[in-house]
Design goal:
The chain has about 240 residues and is an alpha/beta fold. About 40% of the residues lie in helices and about 20% in strands. Strands 3-2-1-4-5-7-6 form a seven-stranded mixed sheet, with helices on both faces.
């Protein structure tokens, strides 16, 4: 049965494509078991310096600039509501606050309690009172349909066991015309691909990153209209997907 979020008129082709894609990505695994990487995420949450170093190294020292470029692609205005999916320790908060302002709303979701603890502490230190924190599985989040003015996910989708489900949840929650921006990493391409046998297993064990996942392909399948820009030998990318009206 197609979820209510995707019950659309037959002539609305983009929404039918989204519905069929999401219907076929339901996980057959139990979602009630605690993933084995939970302790890893909590550990990184307790060691923010290590977490920042890993992100910095994955981007070859270019994380700050690429992160600013990614969030700059979100067409948000003061008072808007935005989802920070896999918010981690809150590294996106400052840039999102600049966009939505005190009258806006940031929904910060992460599976790791350790990461959320760091994010909450940051919001208290900076006096940001417009952030709602949710601990849970991104593939099972229950946000209202057509409620978000935008969504962002940085270095999280490629580490999620059910990234398909998370993408579909975001698509259903976005307003028509709203954007989902993903800043993440994937396998090297071109001459740099010989790094993959080394980099892949290393980051798999340190961040649960699965470099063999085709996250970009799944985003394109769900949204259709998607722009992708690659950096650092194809290892990093920014995908800007728009929910078609």
């Amino acid at each position: 049965m197609i979820p209510s979020a995707f019950r659309v008129k037959p002539q609305t082709r983009p929404f039918i494509t989204l519905a069929l894609y999401c219907q076929g990505t339901k996980s057959t695994k139990s979602l009630h078991k605690q993933p084995p990487f939970q302790s890893l995420l909590d550990y990184l949450g307790r060691h923010p310096g290590l977490y920042r170093f890993i992100r910095w190294s994955v981007c070859f020292g270019r994380e700050a600039g690429l992160q600013k470029r990614a969030l700059g692609a979100l067409k948000l205005k003061a008072g808007d509501t935005v989802l920070d999916l896999g918010c981690g320790a809150g590294v996106n908060f400052a840039l999102l606050e600049e966009k939505v302002g005190a009258g806006g709303r940031i929904i910060a979701l992460d599976y790791s309690e350790g990461m959320l603890a760091q994010a909450k502490a940051l919001s208290v230190r900076r006096g940001w009172g417009n952030i709602e924190f949710i601990q849970g599985d991104a593939a099972r989040m229950t946000l209202p349909e057509n409620a978000l003015d935008g969504a962002v996910c940085t270095f999280a989708l490629s580490a999620m066991p059910n990234d398909d489900g998370a993408i579909c949840r975001v698509a259903a929650s976005l307003k028509p015309g709203a954007q989902f921006v993903v800043f993440d990493a994937k396998a090297f391409t071109g001459p740099a691909k010989f790094f993959n046998p080394v980099a892949g297993p290393f980051f798999k064990h340190t961040t649960n990153w699965d470099y063999e996942k085709d996250v970009v392909g799944k985003i394109k399948m769900a949204f259709g209209r998607t722009e992708v820009h690659e950096f650092n030998g194809g290892c990093n990318y920014i995908a800007v997907a728009t929910r078609i009206t």
